[in-house]
Amino acid sequence: METPMPLTPATGAFEARLRAILPAAAFRDYTDHYRLEPRGSYRGADALLVAPADTGQVAAVVRACHEARVGVVPFGGGTGLVGGQLMQGGPPPVILSLERMAAIRALHPAEDVLVAEAGAILADVQAAAARAGRLFPLGLASEGSCRIGGNLATNAGGVNVLRYGNARALCLGLEAVLPDGSIWHGLTRLRKDNTGYDLRDLLIGAEGTLGVITAASLRLFPRPASETAALLAVASPQAALDLLGLASETLGGSVSAFELMHRNGMVFLAETMPEVRLPLDPAPEWSVLVDVGAAAGLDLDAALEHFMEAGVERGLILDGVLAQNAAHRAAFWTMRETIPEANRRIGSVSSHDISVPLGALPEFIARADAAVTALGPFRINCFGHVGDGNLHYNVFPPQGASAAAFAAQRKPVKMAVHDLVHALGGSVSAEHGIGRLKVDDLERYADPARLAAMRAIKAALDQHGIMNPGAVLRAG
Ligand SMILES: Cc1cc2nc3c(=O)[nH]c(=O)nc-3n(C[C@H](O)[C@H](O)[C@H](O)COP(=O)(O)OP(=O)(O)OC[C@H]3O[C@@H](n4cnc5c(N)ncnc54)[C@H](O)[C@@H]3O)c2cc1C
User: The pTM is what?
Assistant: First the structure.
């Protein structure tokens, strides 16, 4: 395999060339919004920011970059947590923001399909589906800022994967600009299409390394006629898992989310955002948030009460609150969705977005807690989408200390957690992706045949290595 030539900076003659082919409105100031990632762990180096207005302009930019061998970093909402949307060094790239391509192109309610441009904010896609009486179920705490192209590029997960699947499962077709500047018109609305290699599945989760997604056709669902939630104290992670089994038996397909939270999530909220209401007081060591939605004709409150009674009888539920109304349910979710912000304010020593087979969750938590506490006096906030076997296992300094004081332990902590995940047959990136943060982890843990195939695909589609250089796969 040939090593690509070094990249050219997006300055001087190249910048002049782009300014000649794009209207002035496509050039934006490269502010901190684009330079900084949400946790403040990365700062982008110099770059040229362009925001094309349509797919033709995206293709013109990528074609020029391909010809001149200039790096291109696609940029959605900038909420990615693994440093995929910025470059910290190297020849200044083009940051290609999709923010001006935010239209809902079409709605096909009878087919349950919506076609959106890649720059549409996730909350706007949800709202457009709701206006048509439908549900677009992808739901993340960052939904007010992340964009659908970024969601697909990272194959985002979130809180409703248990019922509706991740971003990949919600996408029927894509329109994209490939690394040589050609446009792939793949905006199909088909649910069955076995015509060879699936380029859609290749681009989803590729984090901008194989092309720029410019639009997507997305699956919609009927809106549940009624929705409610319960917040339940459980004795242990094993009890949470057993309760998940009970929920599948008694509530069937109506369970939309099943979230596990450790007490430290509530402790961090009380420390950093005391205005956020904590429905269970005192906060239990472990709790789960169960969210359910059902079609008309089903008495959801009665079904949830029956589930809770059975959970108490089996000794799985220690205490609990059933949402009395929509505002009460929303308060449960505000608490859950504010935990990442509380984590950010406390400042982690090391954060891990992992998944393990469902049955291995309790063992993972017990062994990871033992391994991490053996390395220092850390506070652990473990929470996440337990129904998907996906935990955010985040390690923090003791109260009053700063994460910087424990910088030397960051690597040993990460290795201890990731080695254990790997030994249990899990993944070191369940939903956030690889970006630039986990390139070493991918090299360490990925199956060698798979890694070689990934490198071959990248080299075949992106001969000059211009697409998001250094993300997912090491550059050069
Ligand atoms: C508070 C908070 C909560 C979060 N919760 C979750 C969660 O529950 N589940 C989850 O999965 N993630 C979560 N995230 C992470 C993040 O929101 C997701 O990864 C999201 O999908 C990123 O979308 P974005 O538009 O912000 O992408 P960006 O951050 O802009 O980009 C992310 C990656 O996608 C690439 N990219 C962006 N747009 C395109 C495009 N059009 N074509 C090709 N490549 C592109 C970028 O180059 C980069 O590699 C959370 C983040 C925050 C800050």
Answer: 0.94
